Amino acid sequence: MVENINILLVDDVEYSREILRSAIISCIDDNKFPIRPHFFQTGDGTSVIEIVQHRNIHLIYLDINLAAITSGLDVLEGVRKIYKDLEVVMCSSESSSDNVMAAIKNGANGFIVKPFNSGRVSDTLKKYLLKNKLISD
């Protein structure tokens, strides 16, 4: 059985969102994950909560360095106040230990460094699928 999942991509760079979207689709196909993704995208963090509420989002890939009013860490904090169990994977071109630790401390379920690595993207999808019992280990 194939499960529909709604994935929200949050990055201020449209090209980065498209690369990540393509990487997710490739990982699903390559690993034969039993999911059909439906993608939603935004270039800033101000609409994330609204999108999650109205689109029944299951998984968020969130850039840590948004150029708009709010940072990815602030968005993560806001998401966690309302959605404690929602899977959120942080993304950044900066892999400093400070970024990773801040993301994990604020409740991120994972961290991916840009440019996106298909193995790392696949790991985040597999973790989501295992957590939701859509695949077995």
Q: What is the general shape?
A: globular
N-to-C series of helices and strands: EHEHEHEHEH
Largest sheet: 5 strands, parallel
Total count of strands: 5
Low-pLDDT sequence parts:
none
Classification by helices and strands:
alpha/beta
Into which percentage range does the β-strand content fall? 15-25%
Domain Response regulatory: 6-129
Keywords: Phosphoprotein
Modified residues (4-aspartylphosphate): 63
Protein name: Response regulator
Please provide a written account of the structure.
The structure is a single chain. By secondary structure, the protein is an alpha/beta fold. The longest helix has 18 residues, at 14-31. It has helices at residues 14-31, 48-55, 72-82, 97-105, 118-131; strands at 3-10, 35-42, 59-63, 87-92, 110-113. It has a single domain (3-131), classed as Rossmann fold (3-Layer(aba) Sandwich), CATH 3.40.50.2300. It has a five-stranded parallel sheet, sandwiched between helices. The protein has five helices and five strands; from the N terminus they run E-H-E-H-E-H-E-H-E-H. InterPro entries: CheY-like_superfamily, Sig_transdc_resp-reg_receiver, ST_Response_Regulator. It comes from Paraglaciecola aquimarina. This is Response regulator. Residues 6-129 form the Response regulatory domain.
